[in-house]
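Archive transcription. Copying these from loose printouts into the bound notebook so they stop getting lost. Printout 1 of 2:
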Amino acid sequence: MNEFIQTLSIGGSGPTIAIKDTIDIAGYATTAASRALADAPPAQQHAEVVERLLALGWRIVGKANMHELAFGMTGINDYTGTPQNPQDAARIPGGSSSGSAAAVGLKLADAALGTDTGGSIRGPAACCGVLGLKPTFGRVSRRGVAPRESSLDCVGPFAREMSMLVAAMEAITVDFDAQAARAWQGACKVGIVQADATPEIRAAVERAARVADCAAHATQLAGLAAAFDAGLAVINVETSRAFGHLVATGKLGADLDARLRAAAKTTTAQLDAAQQVRNQFTADVDRALENVDVLILPTLPALPITLDEARGGTSVIAMSSLIRPFNLSGHPALSLPLPIEGSPLKAGLQIVGRKGQDEQVCAIAARFEAALAA
C-alpha cells in the first residue's frame, strides 16, 4: 500500500507506530522515498527515537511513505506512490510526511513519526484530519535522521487522539512530563494571530476559542511573511547541502530536480538576511507569548487542493505560509483537526507555545479536542 514503503512488524505488543522513511531502522535502507537512494545500504543502527520506542514495547508496523527527500508540500510521489488522503481521496495528503499522516488517519497505526522542516508534520496532519506536533527545535533527538544536519528540522508524532500523541511524545523524549501534558484546567488565555486564510477557516478558529472557553484577543505577528521567505531560504540552502549531489544521478522526480536546482542558487546574502529575520521573528513570537498561554491560528490557509489540481501545476507554496515561520523560530506548534461549519472536511487549528513548553501546548490542545468533540 502507498501509505507504507515497507510493512514491518518489529517490537513488542504495545501501541503500533509507523516511522517516516527519513528515520533509521536498523537493517533497513533509509531511502527518503527516492529512486536516487534506492540502493542505499541498510542502516547499521536505529535512530535514537526508534531505540526509545522499541525499549518501551511499541510495535513498528511500517516505514512510512513521504514526499521525495522531504522536500515538497503535496505528498505526491510518482516513484513510491502517493498516500491516500483519509478525508478525501481526491485531495493531496500533504507533504512531506504524507505516509505518516495517512497511516494514522486510515487507522493502519495508532501513531506515526514524521519530520517537520517547513511544516511537514503539521501540513499533512491538517490535510488528513489528524493530530501532528512539531516539538520545540532540539527537544527530540535527531540522531539517525536525514538530513543529518538541519537548523529547522524536528522529529514529532502523529495520532488520532491527544492521549496517544502524548504517549508517543513521552516515549521519544527524554524529559517529557506526560502528566503535565494531559489536561489544562482553569483559565486559558489565547492570542488569535491575524492570518491570511479563507473566511470559513478563520471563523472556525475563533469558534474553537469560544467553545474551549478561552479568553481570546487578536494578535499581530507582522513578521509572518518575512519569516516564511526566510524559512524558504534556509531550507533551500540546507537541503541543497544535504541532497544537491543527487541531481547528477538523473534519478530524481521532476519536481525535486527542479527544486534542488533552484535551491542551489540561494546566495550567501539571502542566507545572511534570513538569519537576521530569524532573530527578529523569534523575538516577536516570544513577545506575543508573554501575556497569553498559547497563540492560535489556522494550520493551512485553505483546504488541500485536489491531486488533479496539483498535477496540473497549481502552486502549493502558500500551503506553508502559516507553518513554516515557526520552524524558523523553533517554537513548538501542534495541528489539531478543526471542524468547519457546513463542511465534511476538517481544517487544522495550529497551537503555538513557548519554547520548551511542549507539554503546555499538548494540554491546551487536549482542552480544545474535548471542547470541539462535545
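Printout 2 of 2:
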Amino acid sequence: MTRKNIWSLLIMVLLGVGISWYSLRDVKLSSLMADIVTLNWWWLLVALGCIALYFGLEAVVVRKFVRHRYRKYSFLSALRVPLAEQLFNGITPFSSGGQPAQIFVMAQSGIDAGRASSVALMKFVVFQAMVVLNFLFAMLIGFHYLAAKLSYLSLYVFFGFLIHFAVIVGLLLVMYWYNFTKKAVKVVLIPVGWFMKAERFAQLEANISIKIDSFYEESLRMTKDWRMLLEVCIVTFFQLLFYYLIPYFIMRAMGYHGINIIMVTSLNVLIFLVTSLFPIPGGAGGAEFGFTALFAKFIPSHSKLILAMLIWRILTYYLGLFLGMFAMAMRPQKAEEIPIVTPEESVDEVE
C-alpha cells in the first residue's frame, strides 16, 4: 500500500469512529452495555459466517474464471482478490480502486495483466447483473413498505437502480454492439477533451479503447462457455444472498423473533443501492442512515438499533478493510500458465 492509501484508510477509520460516536450520542452507556451482554453470540457467529461466505464465494468465482488458463492457482491466492477489492473499494470514492486492486493482486500471482483485467471485468458484469436481478425481487417485496413509510428514500433507491442498470446496459453494448459502442464512446469523450491537454486526452482515449477491446475479446470467449458462465452467475447470486441476510441474523442475535426474513433481506438490497449513490468511500454516513431508517420498525429499541447498525458496519465494511490489509501483506503464490497448443504444434508432435 502507498502512503496515500494508508492515509485514506486512517481517514476512513477515523470518520467511522466519528459517525459511531455521533450515532451513540443519545444512547446511555448502561443501556448499550446491557444490550451487548444479552446478545446471542451464536447468531452473531452465523452473521460472521455469512460475510465469510461472501468473500469465499467470490474467490470461487475468480478461480472459475482463471482455471482454464492457469494451474496451481490456490484458493488462498483467489481469496486475496476479493479482500484487496474490499480494501480499495472502501478507501476510494465510488469504489473506484477495487478494479485496479484486483488486477494488481492477480498479476502478483503470475496472471497476465490483460487476462487479469478481463477476469475483473467479467466478474464485475456478472456481479452487476445479479445486483439488478436481486433489486427487481426486492422491489416486488419491499418497495411498497419503503414508499409508504420512508417515501424520501424511494428516490435514492430509484437513482441507485438507474446507475447499476446503466452500467449493465453499457457493458452489454460492448459485448453485442461493439462497433457502435466504440463510436459512441468517442463522441461522449469529445467534451472531456475540452478540459484536458491533447496529449493526456489521447492517452485516456487510448486506454479506454484498449479496455473496450480487451473486454470484448474476453466476453466472446466467456460467452462460448455457457456452463461456466451459468455456474458463476449462480455462485454470485448466493454470494449476494449471504450478504443480504446479515441484518436478519443480527436481529436474531438481538433477541427479536418472528421477523419476516424475506422483507428484511429485501430491505437490505435497497440499502445496498442507496449506499452506492454516496461518493464518500464506503458510503460512510449514507449506509448508517439507510440502515437505521429502514430497520427502525423491526428494532424499536433505539439503543439496540444503533448497536445493530454498528455490528452490521463492522461485519460488512470494517472487517473487509482490515482483512484486505492482511491480504495485501501476504506473499503471493505463483500460478502456472497452461500453454496453448495450436493444431500445427499437435501435428508436429505426432510426427
